[in-house]
Amino acid sequence: MQIQYKPKRTWLATIFQVEILQGMALTLRRLFSKPITRQYPEEKPQIKTGFRGQHALVRDPATGLTKCIGCMRCAMACPSRCIRIRSHKDKEQWNRRLIDDYRIEALRCVYCGYCEEVCPVNAIVLTEVFEYAAYDRQSIFFNMEQLLANWDRFAAQMNQPVADYVNPFWRPRGLAEHSLPVGKRMSVTPEWSGEQQVVGRKWQQRHNQEESCKGGVDV
Ligand code: SF4
Ligand code: SF4
User: Fold this and answer.
1) CA-CA distances (angstroms) from residue 135 to 83, 118, 132, 139, 140?
2) Is the pLDDT reported for residue 165 higher than 60?
3) Tally of CB atoms within 10 A around 41
4) Ligand 2 probe mutation, 121, 122, 182, most atoms within 8 A of CB
5) Residues 132, 137, 142, CA angle at the centre, nearest 5°?
6) Side-chain half-sphere of 43: how many Cα atoms within 13 Å?
7) 89 lies in the same domain as 135
8) Whether the CB of 113 sits within 6 Å of ligand 2
9) pLDDT tens-place string over residues 58-113
10) Could you tell me if residue 165 is inside a domain?
């Protein structure tokens, strides 16, 4: 069955072509409104904290090497299967796992942030860098050196000390501070605390309930 839409038109609307007048009125209004287009790349957009952009491996300031401990959680959590890690055990350091190579095929990444969420030591991050388009595939197939260099560049352009940098996606939502791995128990700015983002709504509700119970108030 075919249904045809027949708009109702009065004879006045037909004579005066009301739609044309409406269109012209809209054009006239837009002529005097503030433009919403941005003249990129001259005008840069404001990037919010927690934006999931270019990947980086955080460099440990103590050793100058990656903070990664080769636990493979990021590779297992990655839904795009675009993380490859090679590591070996160092017998001289009580079988500590050392990273030989860490690769991310960024063209396959869906920027879900799972890798940084599951990382227990905050070694992998999605930085706030979004301008890294390239003409060749190899430039966006990051190896360990490139990922460390990405971090160095990002850290150099940050307006705050690297130690204070907290990407909210490093902290899984809904988990209390004490439930997080030690490496993730970092102080956060107020805008990312409580109801805003970090601890999650469910945790906050439970926390409020516990606080009420301690105070002897039924909820
Ligand atoms: S952001 Fe998601 S898709 Fe991209 S590398 Fe991390 S886990 Fe994989
Ligand atoms: S989860 Fe973190 S520590 Fe574990 S392999 Fe991935 S980057 Fe390295």
Assistant:
1) 22, 32, 10, 8, 9
2) yes
3) 7
4) 121
5) 65
6) 4
7) yes
8) no
9) 998 889 999 999 999 999 999 999 999 999 998 888 888 999 999 999 999 999 99
10) yes
Residues 6+ apart with CB under 8 A from 174: 199, 200, 201, 202, 203
The overall longest dimension of the chain from CA atoms, in Å, is 92
Length of the chain: 219
Residue 161's domain comprises 55-170
Residue type, 54: Q
What is the torsion angle, in degrees rounded to the nearest 10, for the CA atoms of residue 27, residue 30, residue 31 and residue 37? -120
Backbone angles phi, psi at 105, to 5 degrees: -90, 90
Interval between CA 120 and ligand 2 midpoint (Å): 7
Whether residues 119 and 69 share a domain: the answer is yes
CATH number for the domain harbouring residue 69: 3.30.70.3270
Is 214 found in the same domain as 114?
no
Ligand 2 neighbour 77 (Cβ under 6 A): no
